[in-house]
Amino acid sequence: MAKGKRMTIQEAVQLINDGDMITFSGFTIWRRPMAIVYEMVRQRKKNLHLIEVNSGTHGEILIGAGCVKVLETCWIGHELYGKVGANAARKLKSGELIVEDYSHVHMIMRFAAGAMGVPYLPTRASLGTDILNPEYDALGKHGLRDGSNPRIPRRKFEFLTDSFYGEQGDIIHVPAARPNVCIAHVQQVGEEGTVRVYGQRYSDAEAMKAADRVIVVAEEIVPEEVIRQDPTANLIPHYLVDAIVEQPWGAHPTGCFGYYEVDGMFIRDFYNKTRTQEGFDAWAEEWILKVNSFDEYLYKIGFRRLDMLRANSSYKYSTRVKRGA
């Protein structure tokens, strides 16, 4: 196969510039491109503007490592394996991180608007809540809505009335999300970039379409003529993708439906050890900075642990993971 869009993890991360607005595929602790995240820390990316529907373990790692300057999301944490992100909270309190808070549905609408190529979408969601309180416009208070950055809207929200039917009450205009880069982890990608996702797709299509550049990490790269035989199963076409990377287990410790489970023990250990900056630095030294590649990281995790997480091909989930404990 000609190289084309195919890259190594190291080459793909070089497409991400310091100061870029970035977003990711997946949902909290599912299908996050962790192989790319670890390499971003190794390459010491900085001043990133992370914008997501919600964030998780991957965001906590980038924030703890000092890669992120601005976070726009509705939530960050590790679901049942840890409370709301300790690294984000610590950096926010110290003034090292600016956090802009939107509701979940607002973030979905922002990415939908970005994917559609329109500047905003209307909604009535969150009326009467402090989500809309101008006192909590963090980007505005930091002087970042002055129009100098074309990725940041000049207003957090706009309030208008209905000019079509004359309905009473405010209509909220939610600004589009316009990231520089979307980094996605998926189950399969074609040689030219056609993306296939099994299981829940979350807001992946909107995130990819809203971004200027798309990097796709896949469990496997498959022949393009094969993946196109069932076009209804594919998420986005090849021409929207700029780089593809084949990395089995590349979402670990988050899960990848049909391939492996979330490594809850690993995430819980990360949460417990990184509540302080000293704890995070020690964890990052062990699991990222002293590990030269993702393959070396997987070797460190060990075959037995990975095999326990591996999904049964019929059930699509692991029959070896103890649940409910």
Automatic annotation (TrEMBL):
Signal peptide, first to last residue: none
GO MF term (any one): CoA-transferase activity
Keywords associated with the record: Transferase
SUPFAM superfamilies given in the database record: NagB/RpiA/CoA transferase-like
InterPro entries: CoA_trans_fam_I, NagB/RpiA_transferase-like
Gene3D superfamilies assigned: 3.30.30.40, Glutaconate Coenzyme A-transferase (3.40.1080.10)
Top-level taxon in the UniProt lineage: Bacteria
Pfam families in the cross-refs: CoA_trans
Similarity field: Belongs to the 3-oxoacid CoA-transferase subunit B family.
Protein name: Glutaconate CoA-transferase subunit A
Organism in which the protein naturally occurs: Desulfofundulus australicus DSM 11792
